[in-house]
Amino acid sequence: MLSIIIPLRNEIDNLENIKDNFNKNLKNIKFEVIFVNDFSSDGTFQKASEIAKGNLNFKVFDNKKKGLGGAINLGIENTIGDYICVMMADLSDDFNDLKNYYTRIKDKNLDAVFGSRFTKKSKVIDYPFKKLILNRIFNTIVQILFLNKYNDYTNAFKIYDAKVLKNMLPFVSESFNIFLEIPLKVISRKYSYEIVSINWYNRKVGEAKFNIKELRAKYLFTLIYCFIEKILLNKKIK
Q1: Model confidence, pTM
Q2: Is residue 161 a contact partner of residue 111, using CB atoms and an 8 Å limit?
Q3: Helical packing angle, 178-188 and 68-77, nearest 10°
Q4: Which helix or strand (DSSP H or E) is residue 177 part of?
Q5: Across 65-69, average pLDDT
Q6: Nearest Cα to 98, choosing from 189, 187, 3?
Q7: DSSP per-residue codes, 38-75
Q8: How far apart, in Å, do the first and last CA atoms of the chain sit?
Q9: Is 50 exposed, middle or buried (0-12, 13-18, 19+ CB in 10 A)?
Q10: Is 99 in contact with 179 (CB distance < 8 Å)?
Q11: What is the CATH architecture assignment of 2-237?
């Protein structure tokens, strides 16, 4: 079974599209969608609750610790699937990529599959230019520090074996930096993973929640924290 965690903050206008897209695209896959409301102020929780009442494979939880970190931790704790994927409510990710993730992680018995939006095969539509430049600089720094060829650490859209993800709980990051923390811990702890090309499409409804200025210090903290953990783990192995 596939569990998909979708954190929500003021995404009421996207919820019907999310429901319709999952029911349409995952007809042949047993799945559950875990909505985690992250202190929305626009009726998102009420709308998500309505969807959950009418669709048994949708569940909704109310975050108790404000921020994406708390939402993702709560979502992971409440999944029942064998594999867990995180997707954002803006529908920027490709459902064909989700199905590819699910097939690969099952058939190859992997602990994770990491998607990259920055390969020759990837299709990226309307990615903000300033964000793109900062993204490429930061991911290159991470590649160098961790001596790893993966180039899209900060993207939320990845899939994991549920046992692996739950064994790493709780994650300490409070915001979008949790999407850096998780893959770095997978890599440092020597779990098996594969890298595949994925597509990305900028949101058409609602406003982006990502704020570069607010998140710089948090990403730096996570990078340092995970790098120290990597060093300590290497010393233990030796």
Answers
A1: 0.92
A2: yes
A3: 60
A4: none
A5: 91
A6: 3
A7: -S-SSSHHHHHHHHHHH-TTEEEEE-SSSSHHHHHHHH
A8: 38
A9: middle
A10: no
A11: Alpha-Beta Complex (3.90)
